[in-house]
Write a structure and sequence with these properties.
Elements (H helix, E strand, L loop, with lengths): L3 H20 L11 H18 L3 E5 L6 E6 L7 E7 L19 E3 L8 E3 L7 H16 L6 E7 L7 H9 L8 E4 L11 E6 L1 E10 L5 E2 H4 L6 H10 L22 H7 L6 H8 L12 H4 L5 E9 L9 E2 L2 E10 L5 H14 L6 E10 L2 E2 L5 H14 L4 E4 L6 H9 L3 E3 L15 E3 H22 L1
Parallel strand pairs: 3-6, 3-7, 7-17, 8-16
Antiparallel strand pairs: 1-2, 2-6, 4-5, 5-18, 8-15, 9-13, 9-14, 10-12, 11-13
Helix pairs in contact: 1-3, 1-13, 2-3, 3-13, 4-12, 11-13
GO molecular function: metal ion binding; peptidase activity
Pfam families: M20_dimer (PF07687), Peptidase_M20 (PF01546)
InterPro entries: Bact_exopeptidase_dim_dom, Cyt/Met_Dipeptidase, Peptidase_M20, Peptidase_M20_dimer
Length: 462
């Protein structure tokens, strides 16, 4: 693969322009108003895989949005790598906080990305990272450097729980048979210090509703005499953490693994500047569970956060009203061994039990998934580590992530294979937030690094 870097440099402008074109498609899976855009994006992925060298590509219908499946089988006796990614994106709201329109990509230089970053919804999560694999395949097929078989499974519901993907995987185990699964939907420590994600947190996502009177009430006539659902909901949510920011749901921590002092010491070796972290977020202090560092709080500890809360009048001006209902969306990030369905049930039982008289409470589970840990002594991990070392000139650090990719545990359960998480994003890339972006350096470096994984995986496997 001596011509890998020259190939990427020769075609870098085209690679960037191709990514910009797919970033223009508002493939928002959470909003039915964008149904056709999601379908259009699936078609764009199909076309890209065909041009990159897949022998067979199909858009597979599911109960929800379709899955794009492609393959390049060169010898059935060789190993097979299954690449997973997603073509749907998060809603861009709030739009007023974007410096440029979320679906009109622009390249701007930043302190962290002096060579420029592509600003658009989905730039890093996950269109940019997914498309690195498409371009890596293009290089390997056009230069006769593909050392094994490759399959692609690109879905359109990751941002809403991957329900159809679970159905598809169970229906197509033979089609998806592989030796290792490769995903780029995570990040790394920095552009100078690569890392490989070895653990993911699980997820339980719920919506709660508190109902008081049978209609909105005049706050002067009824205030202080009947329960205000917004006040009640606020108190209930506040009670979910104690003074040490420890979650108060009974049984919540029963299966939480306490890492040893030695393991925590190894984690602490990763470069991290607390002052820089606060500066980047424009905060004057960090916040979280007592007894743990910032990097431990966002990776090896479970959390509970309110993602949205609403009720009553929120328009311009004043309306003196006691709302009939109040709502909140709540996510719980879980660590390995915590079962998301058990946690959802624990939350439901507890939240209903703490409701005062005068209101009715309902808890609606949305979606969830299990946590995941990948061993660092596997062939897949070793191949990824060698690839990063060659590409960056520095050995990667194994690192647990605070994020969740619920289908990773499903893959191991149904397909009986391990997943390698080769992410190239940075914590500062603002995924799920206004002004999401992906460094041009990171995008091109991913295309340079991924073919090396194939090379070393086949060498270590043989």
């Amino acid at each position: 693969m001596d011509n890998l870097k020259p190939y990427v440099q020769q075609h870098k402008d085209r690679f960037i322009n191709e990514l910009i074109e797919i970033l223009k498609i508002p493939s928002i899976s959470a909003d039915s108003a964008f149904n056709q855009d999601v379908i259009d994006m699936a078609e764009a992925v199909k076309n890209a895989l065909e041009k990159a060298g897949c022998d067979s590509v199909e858009i597979c219908e599911t109960p929800g949005y379709p899955i794009v499946y492609g393959e390049k089988i060169i010898d059935k006796n060789l190993p097979t790598v299954l690449v997973y990614g997603h073509y749907d994106v998060q809603p861009p709201d709030p739009l007023n906080l974007w410096d440029s329109p979320p679906f009109e990509p622009v390249i701007k230089k930043t302190d962290i990305h002096p060579e420029g970053a592509i600003f658009a919804r989905g730039a890093c999560d996950d269109k940019g990272q997914m498309y690195m694999h498409v371009k890596a395949l293009e290089y390997m097929t056009s230069s006769n450097n593909l050392p094994c078989n490759v399959k692609f499974m690109i879905e359109g519901e990751e941002e809403v729980g991957s329900e159809s993907l679970a159905w598809f995987v169970k229906q197509n185990q033979d089609k998806l048979a592989n030796d290792v699964i490769l995903i780029s939907d995570t990040g790394m420590i920095s552009n100078q210090q690569p890392s490989i994600t070895t653990g993911l947190r699980g997820l339980s996502y719920v919506e709660v509703e508190v109902t008081g009177a049978n209609r909105d009430l005049h706050s002067g006539l009824y205030g202080g005499a009947v329960a205000n659902p917004i006040n009640v909901l606020s108190k209930m949510i506040a009670s979910l953490h104690d003074e040490n920011n420890h979650i108060t749901i009974p049984g919540f921590y029963d299966k939480v693994e306490e890492l040893s002092i030695e393991e925590r010491a190894e984690m602490a070796k990763a470069p991290f500047s607390l002052e820089q972290y606060k500066k980047e977020l424009d905060i004057d202090a960090v916040y979280g569970e007592k007894g743990y560092t910032t990097n431990e709080r966002n990776s090896i500890r479970p959390t509970l956060d309110v993602n949205g809360i609403w009720g009553g009048y929120t328009g311009e001006g004043a309306k003196t009203v006691i709302a009939s209902k109040a709502f909140a969306k709540i996510s719980m990030r879980l660590v390995p061994h915590q079962n998301w369905e058990e946690i959802t049930e624990l939350f439901k039982n507890h939240f209903e039990s703490i409701a005062p008289e005068g209101v009715r409470v309902s808890v609606k589970p949305h979606h969830g998934g299990q946590g995941y840990v990948t061993p660092i002594d596997s062939i897949g991990y070793k191949a990824a580590a060698k690839a990063y070392k060659d590409s960056f000139g520095t050995a990667p650090i194994p690192q647990r992530s605070g994020g969740s990719i619920p289908i990773v545990a499903l893959f191991e359960q149904e397909l009986k294979s391990k997943t390698i998480l080769m992410g190239f994003g940075l914590d500062t890339d603002a995924i799920h937030s206004p002004n999401e972006h992906f460094g041009v350096f990171n995008y091109l470096k991913g295309i340079e690094t991924i073919p090396l994984f194939y090379k070393y995986y086949v060498e270590l496997k043989s």
